[in-house]
């Protein structure tokens, strides 16, 4: 079967790691017709906008995309192309596996967990009021009236809202994911002891959803600060974590750090109808065009994509090939060598070549 997939190369190192991933995916033999679409700096130059409508339309049509990282210009009023894509396509679940591969330096052994982060609301919804503006002062007065609490007039305000609807669907997604991928336990992470009406609702809704999976998946609860400590001390105790947006962002980076860092951390943004796969790392502009950075995160994002489109066997073969190359430690990029100046390290495309050569 021919799969039609949107490919967004991205900015900075994006085109290099995207090319490496595309070559590895194609080498599995899975038939893919790629539709290339642009977003980020190229799109800004060509069309005067960071996220052209044609790019969104391509993803909507094909239902699956893989994208390289995209620069977020600082202070230009545009929040982030990545956040815009997630919102526009309602990709409400961010899925970030954190797995130890032999050959990748880490303080730990045997971590294999997945962080599932709610992607659509919480403090990331972008509802903000700047310090000093009349509407901010009015809002502060209104809040004081209703809450009976004082807020300094020179405050900026960011709104945190968490709904029953979004909580229900993300926790259900986490349980369904756990069932599909033979995971045993879902841990819901929150700060409901302090934020009773937002995190409290997330937790309460999560508990209700968990009843539907009783006897099949273990359900646990953890307070986010304690979770951070537990993950550093005993990451092996965790399997599938489900979190609201902000905690999910922080904890998923923590988990990427546990298993060896950004170079090997893949991700996916999934909705009910479509999905966009991308590495956790950004566009690392200082390495642009040097054929130097690690393609593993992007290739493993490709592995997640292959599983999503039903090509599980090809996904397993590609993951095995990545494992081989990592554990051998020979044809790997500088960041995977014990000494980052090791002259035997290879470039981005050469590491991809080694992975392709291992594909069985
Ligand atoms: P970054 O992830 O781009 O880079 C931070 C550092 O991590 C790099 O300097 C490099 O040392 C290392 N690194 C990252 N990817 C690597 C790889 N594949 N191999 C080896 N080392 C790697 O983070 P940043 O510098 O904070 O962000 C740069 C730009 O990327 C910003 O504009 C940011 O908004 C954007 N960004 C985009 C995404 C996305 O598209 N999903 C995610 C994060 C950041």
Protein architecture, described:
The chain has 360 residues and is an alpha/beta fold. It folds into three domains: 1-95 and 264-360, Isopropylmalate Dehydrogenase; 107-121 and 163-258, 3-Layer(aba) Sandwich (Rossmann fold), CATH 3.40.50; 124-160, no CATH class. The chain has twelve helices and twelve strands. The protein has a ten-stranded mixed sheet with strand order 2-1-3-12-11-4-5-10-8-9, with helices on both faces. A two-stranded antiparallel ribbon has the order 6-7. A hairpin with a 4-residue loop joins strand 11 and strand 12 (275-279). Helix 1 packs parallel to helix 12 (348-358) and helix 11 packs across helix 12. The chain starts with a strand and ends with a helix. The model has no long low-confidence stretch (mean pLDDT 95). It binds nicotinamide-adenine-dinucleotide. Residues 17, 69-72, 82, 262-263, 278, 281-284, 286, 293-294, 297, 335 line the site of nicotinamide-adenine-dinucleotide (NAD). The site of nicotinamide-adenine-dinucleotide has 18 residues, from loops.
């Amino acid at each position: 079967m021919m799969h039609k997939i949107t490919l967004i190369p991205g900015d900075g190192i994006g085109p290099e790691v995207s090319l490496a991933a595309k070559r590895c995916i194609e080498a599995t033999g899975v038939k893919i017709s790629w539709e290339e679409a642009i977003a980020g700096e190229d799109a800004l130059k060509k069309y005067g906008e960071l996220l052209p409508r044609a790019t969104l339309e391509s993803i909507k049509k094909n239902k699956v995309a893989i994208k390289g990282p995209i620069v977020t210009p600082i202070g230009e009023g545009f929040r982030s192309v990545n956040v815009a894509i997630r919102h526009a396509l309602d990709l409400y679940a961010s899925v970030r596996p954190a797995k130890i591969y032999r050959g990748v330096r880490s303080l730990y052994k045997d971590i294999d967990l997945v962080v599932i982060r709610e992607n659509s609301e919480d403090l990331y919804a972008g509802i903000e009021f700047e310090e000093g503006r009349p509407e901010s002062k009015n809002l502060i007065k209104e809040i004081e009236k209703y809450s009976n609490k004082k807020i300094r007039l020179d405050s900026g305000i960011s709104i945190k809202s968490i709904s029953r609807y979004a909580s229900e669907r993300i926790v259900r997604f986490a349980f369904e994911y756990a069932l599909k991928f033979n995971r045993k336990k879902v841990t819901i992470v929150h700060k409901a002891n302090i934020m009773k009406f937002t995190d409290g609702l997330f937790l309460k809704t999560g508990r209700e959803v968990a009843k539907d999976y009783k006897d099949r998946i273990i359900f646990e609860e953890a307070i986010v600060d304690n979770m951070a400590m537990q993950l550093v001390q005993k990451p092996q105790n965790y399997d599938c974590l489900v979190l609201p947006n902000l905690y999910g962002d922080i904890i998923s980076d923590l988990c990427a750090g546990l298993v060896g860092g950004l170079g090997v951390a893949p991700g996916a943004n999934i909705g009910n109808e479509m999905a966009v796969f991308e590495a956790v790392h950004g566009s690392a502009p200082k390495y642009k065009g040097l054929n130097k950075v690690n393609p593993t995160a992007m290739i493993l994002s490709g592995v997640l994509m292959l599983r999503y489109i039903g090509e599980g066997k090809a996904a397993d073969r590609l993951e095995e090939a990545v494992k081989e190359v990592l554990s051998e430690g020979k044809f790997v990029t500088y960041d995977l060598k014990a000494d980052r100046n090791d002259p035997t390290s290879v470039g981005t495309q050469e590491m991809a070549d080694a992975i392709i050569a291992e594909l069985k």
